[in-house]
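User: Sequence recovery, please. Input:
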């Protein structure tokens, strides 16, 4: 990134008016490093360097960008460059000052005095001050890059880092604009954290503050509305259809293709949730491929085999009927089974079925009628047929 080679191209590109948001975001980050970061002394040869004005002319229009990220970087660049181009301390109303200089001075005064912009600029400046491109690109820097679950390099992208800064600033600036229920929730959490770390006398003081806050917002109808809204969203799938009261339990299944196929089936028929033995399976490529992104839309929970029995009893206490897909002496034919509205469909292990210790928690076992020689179906296929039968019965009840 030699200034004499790269600088001219940067100035040429940043002054274009037809840039995409992705393009201008990259340019703004590069310009931030060259003008406000550790490389400013390399890029600008003197205080009268003409590149200063050219970069400023390219950044100024982006102060009005519809994208918050590019707009915020433009504010940082303009605040940094304007004092190097014009005398910002001069009286803007004086006859001797040129019109262009007066306009730039007014822009600088606004950027320098606005509290929200100051907070955003300070955090961005700290980022550019600490980000060392040379160190990141060294052998030591490359080895220091964090890795993800798949042992692949997962560096922190500059755009993501600066977006986090902007999100923090926005949250600070608009905290008072948040819904009443959200403010109350935050205050309750803050009070709880404070109470755990301070003495009893301090607790009384915090409690009085909480009472005063509650007096301001009572009655707390807004809190009830907010909570109900969050709860209601859980009852609908991504397509806006109401979820069925069907929980598919696949805790005993360990083959990824079967789990992925069940995830896809559960999403298609809008099951309430899918219980998995390990949620890390969702990140495997073969799971993503077979499930066809169903893992992005269906609620999944983890329940390992050792905790399964207590989980089943918990669901029974919540009013769910436990229906196991298993061939036993007391199994009922699927075509004669009348599913309860609230059903947990328990699927067995591949080849082995449902272990006997879990059958004690099952209310009813069902089996799928077969006309061939082979005595068992693939567990995913058995689950899919059972899910469809449940769905068909629920649809018929709505007619």
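Assistant: Recovered sequence (399 residues):
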């Amino acid at each position: 990134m030699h200034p004499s080679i790269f600088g001219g191209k940067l100035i040429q590109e940043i002054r274009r008016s037809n840039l995409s948001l992705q393009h201008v975001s990259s340019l703004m980050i590069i310009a931030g490093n060259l003008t406000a970061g550790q490389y400013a002394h390399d890029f600008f040869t003197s205080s009268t360097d003409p590149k200063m004005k050219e970069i400023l002319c390219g950044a100024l229009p982006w102060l009005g960008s519809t994208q918050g990220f590019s707009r915020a970087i433009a504010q940082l660049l303009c605040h940094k460059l304007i004092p190097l181009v014009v005398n910002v301390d001069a009286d803007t109303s004086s006859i001797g000052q040129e019109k262009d200089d007066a306009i730039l001075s007014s822009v600088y005064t606004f950027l320098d005095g606005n509290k929200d912009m100051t907070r955003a600029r300070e955090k961005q400046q700290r980022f550019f001050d600490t980000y060392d491109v040379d160190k990141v690109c060294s052998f030591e820097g490359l080895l220091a890059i964090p890795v993800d679950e798949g042992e692949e390099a997962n560096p922190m992208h500059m755009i993501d880092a600066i977006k986090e800064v902007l999100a923090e600033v926005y949250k600070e600036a608009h905290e008072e604009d948040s819904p009443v229920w959200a403010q109350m929730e935050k205050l309750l959490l803050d009070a709880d954290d404070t109470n755990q770390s301070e003495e009893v006398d301090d607790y009384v003081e915090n409690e009085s503050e909480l009472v005063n806050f509650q007096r301001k917002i009572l009655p707390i109808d807004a809190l009830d509305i907010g909570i109900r809204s969050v709860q209601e969203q859980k009852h609908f799938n991504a397509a806006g259809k109401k979820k069925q009261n069907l929980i598919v339990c696949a805790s005993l299944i360990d083959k990824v293709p079967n789990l992925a196929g069940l995830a896809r089936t559960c999403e298609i028929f809008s099951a309430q949730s899918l219980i998995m033995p390990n949620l890390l399976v969702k990140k495997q490529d073969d799971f993503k491929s077979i499930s066809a992104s169903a893992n992005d839309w269906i609620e999944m929970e983890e329940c390992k085999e050792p905790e399964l029995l207590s989980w089943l009893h918990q669901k029974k206490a919540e009013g769910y009927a436990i229906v196991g897909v298993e061939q036993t002496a007391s199994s009922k034919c699927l075509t004669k089974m009348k599913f309860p509205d609230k059903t947990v469909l328990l699927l067995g292990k591949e080849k082995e079925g449902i272990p006997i210790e879990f059958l004690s928690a099952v209310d009813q076992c069902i089996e799928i009628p077969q006309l061939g020689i082979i005595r068992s179906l693939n567990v995913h296929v058995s689950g899919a047929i059972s899910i469809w039968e449940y769905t068909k019965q629920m649809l018929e009840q709505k007619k």
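Confidence is low (pLDDT under 50) at residues 197-230.
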